[in-house]
Every structure is written in structure tokens, then in C-alpha cells.
Structures
1.
Amino acid sequence: MGSGKTTVCQIFEQLGISVYNADTEAKKLYVTHLGLKRAVIELLGDAAYFADGLLNRKWITEAIFSDTAKRQALNKLVHPLLLEDFNAWCTQKNDGKTPYILKEAAILFETGSYKELDFVIGVLAPKPLIYERIMQRDSISASQTSKRLKAQWPEKKWKALCKYTILNDGKAPLIKQVLNTHNCIVLGQE
């Protein structure tokens, strides 16, 4: 969260690589999958959705980041459906035109979904920059940002499971790192 995964993925897309954005697709599932919607309401209450049927993201975010059990229960509801959606997307995108595809996800390790992938590219950024990005993007305080970040695996833990890493600190040449990673993947190099 806040490392700049989306920016990195946009560069990969410019190289012709298809990217599945798990967060975007999860938001769609929350609204379109009636079984999930019912389960979310059962878990979190009617306030999880607005009267028009749209997801009350701000309310849900507050609810799950103040209650670990609810956050874990919500993840157990949505992630199997998201994996199913991702697998269907992969089948559709597996047309032989690109050497690989990417899955962009904030909680890849926490949900165990990284085990379904051939390898992981981690996007790193310094903590102060991560805080700044999240606070600006979501219009939240430093304490709210801290609460969200504490729900994720520490960098040291997930970095050990990454085959490649890209530093997105605003200083290191990002495009060059993406190109190098892309070339390593295409050529099968480490």
C-alpha cells in the first residue's frame, strides 16, 4: 500500500503487458456479486452499502481496520471470488501475444494468493513516502495510515518472497528498473 504499484504497472502496460488490478476488480465484485453482497451485510451490517447499492468504502475501511477479526473474515469472503475472477481473466488474456501477465494486489501475501503465481515483483518505497502517498490519496491522517499499514506484512517478510524488486522512491530511475525487470522475465534471467 502506497509503494506505487499502480505507477509501476502502468509502465508494464506500456510494454504491452496485461495487468489485473485486484483492488479494482474486488470493488466490482462487492457490488455485482449478490452472494458476496449478502455476506458483507451479514458480517458488517447494512451500513456497508448505501441505499443505491453502492459500497460504502469509507465506512467499511474504518470498520475493518479497527477490527482484525472482521478484516480477516471479509478477506475470506472476497479473496476466493477474486481468485476465481483472476483465473477467468488469465484464461481470457492467455492468447500467446504477451510473454507474461501481472496481478496488482496490495495484500498478496496476507491472503496467500502469491502462492498461485509464478513469481512476485515487489515495489518498494521509503516509509515516509508511503505515508505521504496514502494520506494524500485517501485524505486520511497519519494514525489512520499507520493502522492500515500495520495490517500488512512487514516489508522484510514479504520482500524475501519476491523474485524481483523495484524501488519507487522518486529518485531511482523507475522506467529503467521496469525495463530491466521485463527483460529478465522475458529472457528468463535472474
2.
Amino acid sequence: MTAVKHEDGICRCGWCGVDPLYVRYHDTDWGVPEYDSRALFEKLILDGFQAGLSWITILRKRENFRAAFDGFKPEVIAAYDKRKIERLMKDEGIVRNRLKIEGTVESAKAFLEIEDFSAYLWNFTDGRPVQNRFTSLKQVPAEIPLTKQISKDLKKRGFKFCGPTIVYAFMQACGLVNDHLVDCHRHEAVKKLVR
């Protein structure tokens, strides 16, 4: 599937469909280079929660996740106790998966051990987004050798739910890789956002 022309005359990556929330996410958020460590942590955790689900499910619950997980402040999450985890397990506004919730706590602890999470991640791409030029969604890989390397290093540091496929989705979302299709209106726009 190539980029799809929407009713507004704009070509977008076909994966975002026509749901207004998904279209807005595609047009304003997905693929934009992110350099804020806390925001990167949030996106990595949300991509971990997405495993086995569709991204639109997580996107619809994103504000609930932010409220439930104290704005994704790693220093707060790292101190969660069993009582807090039980409260999260009862929160219908999020994905109630014990392993993923407990994994978030472990990932927050691992995050706090890294002096500059943003610099750590961007170092894998030499500080610049990988600029792909895919013309079809069929060309977009689920993972690449680099995501295996990042995944292995994250796991070694104690992060959870960060396999190579999750890491690639995370890299796409955070603009470490530009996977907007070349005929999508966001491809060139995102390419120009490089620091």
C-alpha cells in the first residue's frame, strides 16, 4: 500500500486510516524527532504496552496512561509498591497486564541508571534520524539489525518489553527513523526537523 489520498486531498501513510485521532497522531506526532528523555521513556513504555494490541487502542488510552503512571515520571514510577501496582491492575482506563505494569517499574529503575536517556538512544543513530525512502508499507520492516542491538542493550540494562519489533515501532514513533512513505505529506516535513 502506498500513501493514501484522504478527503482533504492530503496523502498520508495508509496505516493511519481515517480515524481523526489516528490521523492527527500521524500528522503531528509520529516520526517527529523526540529529544526529551522523559517523553522518550513514555513512548517506549507505551510501545511495550502495545505488544499484542493495535496502536489505536493505546492511543485512545494515552491520557489515561499518563494520569495512572504519574505523567510517566521515572523517578516516581521506580518507587511504586505492590499497593500501587494493585491499583493500576484495577484501572479500566489502561491496559491491565501485570507483567507490563511491573515491567514499567523495572524499566523506570533502569532509566534512572542512565545519565542522559536521550543521548544514549540517539547515539545509536549517530545523533541523526535514519532517513528511509519507502514507497510502500510492504517495504517497511518489522525490525532491523540496529533494533536487535538496541533491544539487547536495553534488556541488559534492565528494561522490559523492549524486543526488536517494539524498539523499531518506538524508533518510528520518536523519529529516530523516518518511515513516512515518500509520497506521504509528512515525509519531507519530518526530514527537515533534524537538529
3.
Amino acid sequence: MTDDWVSLFSGGKDSSWALYRALEEGLNVSRLLTVHPDGDSYMYHVPETRLARLVAESVGIELVEVEPGDLEAESAEDSGAQGDAELEPLEAALTELQGEIDLVGVTAGAVESEFQTHRIQGMCDRLGIDLFAPLWQEDPRELADAMLDAGFEIKIIQVAAGGLDESWLGRTLDEAALEELEELNEQYGVHILGEGGEFETFVVDGPHMEKRIELEYDTEWEGTRGRIRITDARLE
């Protein structure tokens, strides 16, 4: 049997970068695993996770999906308890995979979130597997520049922070956008990579993908936050 890795994957830039770096390091990533949260989540990227199916096809790696109905834990009284509850279906899915593949580790895209990383590391310890987290504690701007230099095409699909208006929806995260985000970081404290939930992204193309993903969408805006709603998505 080969040493198999599972990429915890949402389609956003951070999990995509973790996957890309794992492949660059020669890790045998044999599965992508996407959790589809039902509503807001402390642990997972939420918007448009269904697009992970197209990414999996473009990358050529089998996708495992955890459906909203599998998230059976009731709303917890505090964020910590809810985070623990949200982790349960992910751990169950990985436990099941251990019976199918020679699972040696998972990839994760956390940059600064102790909340997420502590729980994922604890899960890995319980399962006896490794954690590959190439973004952890790295400089956010340097990470963003590295993504662009590698050829990632990143779309902003949700915003919820001061200074981010409707014009950011569907915008490409390029050099000009990063410069503006640095200014917004100084003015409002917006995280340059959006790790505080200020914005969410989707990677439509990258060096690890055989085909680019073309998106068509509508935008929704509610006062101080908004998102895009995908109407069509296809591989070019």
C-alpha cells in the first residue's frame, strides 16, 4: 500500500494552496474531503462548497463529501463546544477512509487560527496521522504573493467586513486588490487573507488544475455584507 494523504478542501485559496504545496512536496494526495456546512460554521469555509466537485475533476483527485445531513450535533452553547461538534463528522469520515486507504495524514489551510488548528491537530493525534499545514504562522502578504506568483486565479465570493463593499464580489484577488486590503487592514483590521471571515474566496485556476473553471453568478447584498450565488459553473 502507498502512503495516502487527504486534503481537507473547500475550494478556497487557503485549502487550495495547502493542496498545491502538498503535491509540490510529492505527497500522495489520493482524496479531497469537503464538508458542506448547513449555515454558519466556526470550523469550515461555507459559501459555494459544491464547486469542489469541479475542482476535483480538474485536479484529477477523488472527492469525498460530507453532507449537511451528516452534521447531526445540535447547536452548542459556546463557540468551542460548537467547533468540537462540527469536527465530529469530519473525524468520522476520516475514520471510515482509514478502512479504505493507507491514510497517513491530512492537509489543512489554516494561517493563524488556533481555534481550527488546535482541533484539527487533536483529531490527527486521535487518528494517529500527520498534519501538513504549510500556511501555518506564515506572513499573510507573503503567502498571498506566493499564490499569485504560482499562477492562482482567485475570485472573492463573499465579503463581510468594514471597507469591503459590493464591488468586491466576484473581484479577482490580484496585486491591486492586495494593496487595497493592506490599507483596509490598517484602517479596519481586515485580515489580508480574510482569515477572520472578512471575505471568502474560490480558486478558479491554478498550476495544479488541468482546466480552468468558468463561473456565472448573481450577487446578493444585505447592508454590510454580501455574496455571489453561482448560476452556472463549468470546466473550460
